[in-house]
Description:
It is a multi-pass membrane protein. Pathway: Cell wall biogenesis; peptidoglycan biosynthesis. One of its GO terms (biological process) is cell wall organization. One of its GO terms (molecular function) is lipid-linked peptidoglycan transporter activity. The protein is mainly alpha-helical. The protein has one domain. The chain is built from 14 helices and 3 strands. A 3-stranded antiparallel sheet has the order 1-2-3, with no helix packed on it. The longest helix has about 35 residues, at about 15-45. The model has no long low-confidence stretch (mean pLDDT about 90).
Amino acid sequence: MKVQKRSTLFSRPINLYYMLVGSTMALSIFGLIMVFSASSIYSLENKGATWAILFRQLIFLVLALPMAWVLSRFSLARWKFFARFGVLASVGLLAVVQLPGVGKSVNGNNNWISLGFADVQPSEIAKFLMILWAGSILAKRESAGDIQANVLKLIAPAFLLCIFLVLLGKDLGTASVFAFVLAGMLWVSGVHLKLFAAISAVGFLGIAALIISAPYRVARFSVFLNPFAEDQYKSVGWQPAHSLLGLASGGLFGVGLGASRQKWGNLPEAHTDFIFSVIGEELGLFGTIATLLMLSTLLFSIFKIALRTQDPMVRYVCSGIGCWIGVQTVLNIGSAVSVLPVVGVTLPLLSYGGSALIATYMGIAFVIGAARRDPAIYRELEKTGIPKWLR
């Protein structure tokens, strides 16, 4: 008697494609709504209109969507060609920011370039380019059968150079993302557990040294577990304390969309680093759970597509993109709920930030392209009757 396999949501490969595209669009639309809600007061005071920041974010999203459509249709050969220049482009982008008269300081971090109509952060694009390059290098090692090659020597020096350039701009948060992405790609490459543990230990010691080297970082680190301490509350404890107050006041269903009290000047960077707190305050526990489910769906689909692919470069790059989005999610939400020090990174697809949005869409476009090249997914897409240009 033939036993039929039970059909589940994950048994059909095409569902991974739908989950990837659906979660991306849901997060993007939800992000626009929350950016408008979280930024309205700040935007009115600083830009003269409640919708000014929303309009900027919408412009970047409008630019990101056709860009992602084009990139998702790149052939693998074209991606491999561009991957060769990933390090040079990344180092160039990060180095030019440090040139006198070029870089701009925002909140103490000199990792921005002003284009007049908007400020851009080259380090966001460099994240994707470095993952693309590292994936190609690791794939060449695997394809050549050179399993004895020292993976650490292959990709770590270039990542360390990028981290150094980012740290010149005093951006420890972005540097930490680069470091964790490196760790993730080393793990995926199959590096020996003892070596990985040693690398991780050195990395955490390096982060500790950087924290100790700057008094404001020491203060942030010492206060995150108790931001309401009397001697810290009105200084470095202010952001994490009011983030927690916002989350705590949301309850199960929140105070209502647009009704946040913390965004009225109490919570700095409410529309960027602390947008999760506004979500919790306005939409409550259910809103934060829905946000986590959307992000989890996005990450799950990325890693499952990475596991399905036969090409080693695609597998490594997709895994690196998943690590990148996952690490930023953990760092951002960890800061918002005060289980991690405030590191100043955006929540992917939700926080305000054109550079971050464009870079994230570049990464997701690569994964969509990987899904479309999957024979099983492509066959099922053809059966749907969806016009080819929409797939």
